[in-house]
Write a structure and sequence with these properties.
By secondary structure, the protein is mainly α. About 80% of the residues lie in helices and about 0% in strands. This is CKLF3 protein.
Length: about 130
């Protein structure tokens, strides 16, 4: 929702050249929302969903911070200032989401590393079978 509000502010402002970043972020967030809602993350196991969400949060926080600084410092109209203020709020929101998603990603990666492939013998089992 915040990305869509920022997008609308940039359309109405003199800083319309910045409108593409919030639009893409809004569409990406919408896609991931529907992917999780329709259980696509369970159907497509080849995609690392926590990593995808993590990268989205990191890039969104960095991009929103950069374009908010540019919008607030370079443009003087009210819509640009509003977009900048909302952009700083979005930076904080995405930073918090980044922290939460990072913890989920660590848990996801620990689960993947703890699964040992079946059918592989350890060195002790191999040495015991050779002595028989």
């Amino acid at each position: 929702v915040l990305s869509f509000i920022i997008f609308i502010c940039y359309i109405a402002s003199l800083a319309a050249s910045f409108m593409m970043a919030p639009l893409l972020e809004f569409l990406l967030a919408l896609f991931l929302f529907f992917a999780y809602a329709s259980k696509l993350n369970e159907k497509f196991k080849g995609v690392h969903w926590p990593l995808t969400d993590f990268l989205r949060c990191v890039t969104a926080a960095i991009i929103y911070f950069a374009i908010s600084i540019a919008a607030v410092s370079k443009y003087n109209d009210g819509a640009s200032k509003a977009a900048g203020v909302f952009g700083f709020a979005a930076t904080i929101v995405f930073a918090v989401d980044f922290y939460i998603t990072f913890n989920d990603l660590v848990t996801f990666l620990k689960q993947g590393s703890s699964d040992s492939p079946e059918g592989h013998k350890t060195e002790d089992e191999d040495s015991d079978s050779d002595s028989d």
